[in-house]
Amino acid sequence: MKRLFRLFAAFALLTGAWACSDDQTSEVRINDGAEFLSLDYLARSGKITVNAPAPWSVIVSSGNFGGGNDPDWVTLSADEGPEGYSEIDVTFAANPGPARSALLLFDCNGETTAFTLSQSARDTGFDAPDYYFYAAYGTMPALYAGLHLLSHDKPSYFFYERPQTYDPELFPDYATVFTAANPDAGATTEEIYAMNEQMKRRILEINAEDPTAVFGLYVTDLACRAGYDWFVGQGIDSARVKVTMLSDGTGTYNNFHTFFGDPATAEQNWNDYAARVEALDWNHGGRYPETRAPQDLVSDEWIAYLSTRPNYRLMLQNASLMESSGPFMTQKLAEMKMESVQPYELLTALPEEAKKEFYRMANFDYDRFKALFDASPKGNLIILGTSHTTDESRRQQAAYVQRIMEQYGAEYDVFFKPHPADGSSSDYEERFPGLTLLPGQMPFEIFVWSLLDEVNLIGGYPSTTFLSVPLDKAGFLFAADAASLPRPLNLLFSDAPNVEWMQP
User: How many domains does the chain have?
Assistant: First the structure.
């Protein structure tokens, strides 16, 4: 059954639960209190430390995890040891088949302590996860994540920073939802911390129940470090974690240009960021303390390099808009695993009932707007507005709208989508007869994606919206030319001969 966590309220309970777990003691303490060792499918060696109050012995057992009655793929350097501190070298043979696990059963003073060993399967892909975790900061990643959530029925754990994006009560039953306590505000630092700890705790609980489970993580690219901190940093073998970094829109392209756009510094920057990532212990085979505070999960300079590592990929609107600054970055771009996926493609691919569920989650009245677009035999044109800080800006927007009505009003039904912060357009229906005002707070991306076939022409102020709609739908922009647009729209519209450029 679906569970909804109001994060701030859960924080005290969570920290209490963790304190209780830390108080647990056993006759034999293995790996300083760790409960498992998780390694990948290659032939690997790890070290297990033992602290015992008396002499001990250990046997390898398949336990109740399967993998055969004789787990001969595990070799121990010792099967007994003295009182006090000692070490065991454990060696895993290469795994040519499915994931497998076993138990080490330590006997000391007549009491048995179990320690789990697990080894990943080879070549598990991004569609292999048994459990999904979603961490969506910003609007676009949350929409990507919500669409993916509805494409499967696996147990899922879903955090989104902006509670206005979805109704948390309308998620499918297989999803546990984490969101802010205040539905009118974004998650606070304290709430993000609580979510972070709850996610990590649940990952360890799942691993204890299913030591060969494969995890899928869909995370805003700016918070890409969660793939390491939540899983690998807790001892989960990186081959069991499939990380999809979700573009937040223009920030993805601008960050890449900031870090690698200057050919004089691009190679050095890349090597520096690669060194930071590789300095992390990706095959340590054990748990160890956090290296970074959860509120500092943002590691935007890591995104590009991480996309070259196994089990990482970057999902964005248009990979061709990632700019090369020379031969070195051209090569690195080719090595990056990037998938150009438009959100409306994910929406279109969903079964009809899943589409309806997405609309309900997003509080989007599809039938209402579909009827509005079908009310006339004319085509449908949408103008995108902007926010304003001056009267001149408000006047200029109204002048643009007047021009569009005069130029296109006979051929199209004209709709105006105001910026959420724009109150100056509330009387546009009276000022411009024939224009229909759309709700300012409406999730416009969902509107465009769901009714894409009904939208004949879209234009207005430059916006990230244009990254996720077909270019042939863009008819006009309130700008001088493509070169004047912010990155990466300048590249997107550099070869758009049908766009009309409008200025005051």
Answer: 3
